[in-house]
Each structure stands twice: as structure tokens, then as C-alpha cells.
């Protein structure tokens, strides 16, 4: 198979979860939306369930299918987008817990699935998902009477510890849930790092499981090796790739790798990004194509079989900086075409 090989270290992910969980007296769940940030929700979910995770979060009900199969009937799977018009059957069949975000979703849940588990999201200023103050006030008694599994909100600026929005949202969340005898959750990875005031009963790490910012001190869980499918020698003056953007200034040996922007190797990464053979850097040259990358391997002693894009020499966050984006986007862009190999767990 001529695709990138993505090696996912389950022990590193479990270790990161344990370290994040140990930062708080609250229970730690795990957020596995977008196929566990590209790493594979089924395998990662099974490993985390084995390690003790009892509450998982996905973005949409469809993501619950593979995860439910992997973790079995016991762990709770929350659906962050809530209960949409076409979600009822899946929620019932898979025993998912929708996080209701609006009066409409609340009615849908109570009409279609009365007595079944649900959670509530409150909007505390991010203005993205969740009940607004007045809408929440109108249904609070009814909701509390029905026994929500969780009341949660989400921080907009948790990766900036000094941002005044953090304290503002914390205060609003407390006001909206004061005195309620129900499990509460506010913190994702960034919120865990803000300290115990933000932890409540349950924390919801996602990116931190993968050792990327804002939890860059975590263990790197990924290696991405790209196979070399052809090599050639250029004489000085020859050009490489679309648009002839790169020209050889010396006799150059070029390797062509089997991955491109269709695999999440963002086109903006072109010139200025290296891939690695062990610890030797080999610069990407020319434009990144849809399925191919060209690399200058002149300085290597022998043609390599693979070159490493993500690994000990270059983290997900390093790539994110080069691409002027965030680790979340690098991870969730990892190609479904890569062959995923799991170690540990
Ligand atoms: C994505 C998400 C999380 C996890 O966030 P990280 O920053 O990846 O830890 C937690 N809660 C909600 C509501 C989310 O959307």
C-alpha cells in the first residue's frame, strides 16, 4: 500500500489522559469528535474505556456508531450538537445522551424520547451553542425535574489564561447553575489548565489527549511517515513541480512522496517545511500537489523508504505554526487514506 503510515501511540494518549485527569478532582471524560481528532475514534475509544474513561463526547450522533461498538454499552456517549430533526432513531438505538442546546431541541427530546438521558448546554457568552439566559430561566424547573445527566458550557478563550472572558464565563456559569443538584462541566483542555475553579464535576479534554497546544507538555502520540515512490537526479537549472516554482542550484536528488494536500499536508506548507530521515532534515521543494510532495534528499547517504512529516523532530504544533493554523486543524486534516497503525494500549 502506497499511502502514508500514521502510527498512533495509545499508551501516550492514555498517559496524557491520566495526567490531565490527575490535575483535577473532577471526573475526566474524553472528547473523541472528528474521529478522535483524526486518530481513529474506535481504537482510541476502546483503549481509553479500558483505561477507565466512562464519559465520551462526539460532535454528531453518527459519530456515536463506531464509538458505541468499540466501547460497549456501559460508557456514556454525549452528542455535543444535541438532538437534531433526524437524530432520534440513532440516539435511541445507540443509547446516546444528546446535549440539548435550545428550546427546540428540548421539546424534540421530551416529545420523542421522554425519560431517556439528556444533558444541557448553556451559552455563557461564546454565542455558538447552548441556552441563552432567558430561555434557560423559562425551562429550568422542567429540566431539573427530568434529571439531566449533566449541565455544561464551553469557554471561548481558555487557551489565553489571562483573558478576562474566562472569569466572566465562569461567573455566568455559576449564576446559571447556582444551587442545582446536578453534575456540571465547563472545562476542555484549556480550562483544565486554568485551575480548580474551572473544573466542577467533569472535565472534557480533547486536544490534550494528543499532546498538542494548549497541552504541549503532554506526550506526542503521533508519527506520520510518507513513502518515497520515486527518486531522480536533476542537473543544476532543472525545475520541480507545478508552476516551476523551484529550480536546482546544484545537482540535486529529488524524492517524490505519496501524500499531498488531499491528505491534509496543507498546500501552504510547501517551501520552508522539512521532512526527516532520522534527524536529518530534507526540505520540501516546489509546490505541494494533491497526492504528491517533492523533497530534496541530496544530503542523505542513501535513498530512504519513508520520510517523516510528524515525529520526534517536528510536532503537530510545529507544523501548525508553519501553516499559520492550530494543531486541531493539522490533526483533523490527517487523511483517511493513511494507514493507521496502533502501538501500545
Ligand atoms: C471540542 C470540545 C471540547 C474539547 O476541547 P479541547 O480543546 O480539544 O480539549 C470540549 N467541549 C466542547 C463543547 C467541545 O466542542
UniProtKB/TrEMBL annotation:
One annotated GO molecular function: pyridoxal phosphate binding
All residue ranges annotated as the Alanine racemase C-terminal domain in the record: 221-343
Record: residues binding substrate: 128, 290
Keywords noted in UniProt: Isomerase, Pyridoxal phosphate
Record InterPro entries: Ala_racemase, Ala_racemase/Decarboxylase_C, Ala_racemase_C, Ala_racemase_N, PLP-binding_barrel
GO BP term (any one): D-alanine biosynthetic process
Catalytic residue positions: 33 (proton acceptor), 242 (proton acceptor)
Pathway recorded for this protein: Amino-acid biosynthesis; D-alanine biosynthesis; D-alanine from L-alanine: step 1/1
Record keyword Metal-binding present: no
Group of enzyme by EC: isomerase
EC number(s) on file: 5.1.1.1
GO annotation, cellular component aspect: cytosol
N6-(pyridoxal phosphate)lysine modification, residue list: 33
SMART domains, A to Z: Ala_racemase_C
Catalytic reactions of this protein: L-alanine = D-alanine
Cofactor(s) listed in the protein's UniProt record: pyridoxal 5'-phosphate
Reported function: Catalyzes the interconversion of L-alanine and D-alanine. May also act on other amino acids.
Record family assignment: Belongs to the alanine racemase family.
Protein name: Alanine racemase
Lineage: Bacteria, Pseudomonadati, Pseudomonadota, Alphaproteobacteria, Rhodobacterales
Gene name of the record: alr
Amino acid at each position: 500500500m502506497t499511502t502514508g503510515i500514521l502510527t498512533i501511540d495509545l499508551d501516550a494518549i492514555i498517559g496524557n489522559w491520566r495526567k490531565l485527569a490527575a490535575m483535577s478532582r473532577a471526573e475526566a471524560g474524553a472528547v473523541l469528535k472528528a474521529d478522535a481528532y483524526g486518530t481513529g475514534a474506535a481504537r482510541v475509544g476502546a483503549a481509553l474505556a479500558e483505561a477507565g474513561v466512562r464519559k465520551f463526547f462526539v460532535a454528531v450522533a453518527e459519530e456515536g456508531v463506531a464509538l458505541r461498538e468499540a466501547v460497549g454499552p456501559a460508557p456514556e456517549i454525549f452528542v455535543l450538537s444535541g438532538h437534531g430533526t433526524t437524530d432520534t432513531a440513532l440516539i435511541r438505538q445507540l443509547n446516546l445522551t444528546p446535549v440539548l442546546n435550545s428550546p427546540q431541541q428540548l421539546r424534540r427530546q421530551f416529545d420523542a424520547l421522554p425519560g431517556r438521558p439528556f444533558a444541557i448546554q448553556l451559552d455563557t457568552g461564546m454565542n455558538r451553542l447552548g441556552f441563552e439566559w432567558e430561555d434557560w430561566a423559562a425551562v429550568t424547573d422542567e429540566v431539573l425535574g427530568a434529571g439531566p445527566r449533566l449541565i455544561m458550557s464551553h469557554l471561548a478563550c481558555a487557551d489565553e489564561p489571562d483573558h478576562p472572558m474566562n472569569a466572566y464565563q465562569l461567573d455566568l456559569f455559576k449564576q446559571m447553575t447556582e444551587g442545582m443538584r446536578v453534575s456540571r462541566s465547563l472545562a476542555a483542555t484549556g480550562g483544565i489548565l486554568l485551575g480548580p475553579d474551572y473544573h466542577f464535576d467533569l472535565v472534557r479534554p480533547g486536544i490534550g489527549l494528543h499532546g498538542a497546544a494548549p497541552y504541549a507538555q503532554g506526550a506526542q502520540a503521533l508519527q506520520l511517515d510518507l513513502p518515497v515512490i520515486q527518486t531522480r537526479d536533476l542537473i543544476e537549472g532543472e525545475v520541480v513541480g507545478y508552476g516551476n516554482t523551484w529550480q536546482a542550484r546544484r545537482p540535486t536528488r529529488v524524492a517524490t512522496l505519496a501524500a499531498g494536500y488531499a491528505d491534509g499536508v496543507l498546500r501552504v506548507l510547501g517551501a520552508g517545511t522539512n521532512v526527516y530521515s532520522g534527524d536529518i532534515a530534507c526540505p520540501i521543494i516546489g509546490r505541494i500537489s494533491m497526492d504528491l510532495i517533492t523533497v530534496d534528499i541530496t544530503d542523505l547517504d542513501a535513498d530512504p523508504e519513508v520520510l517523516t512529516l510528524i515525529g520526534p523532530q517536528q510536532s503537530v504544533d510545529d507544523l501548525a505554526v508553519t501553516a499559520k493554523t492550530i494543531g486541531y486543524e493539522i490533526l483533523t486534516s490527517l487523511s483517511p487514506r493513511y494507514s493507521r497503525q496502533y502501538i501500545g494500549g
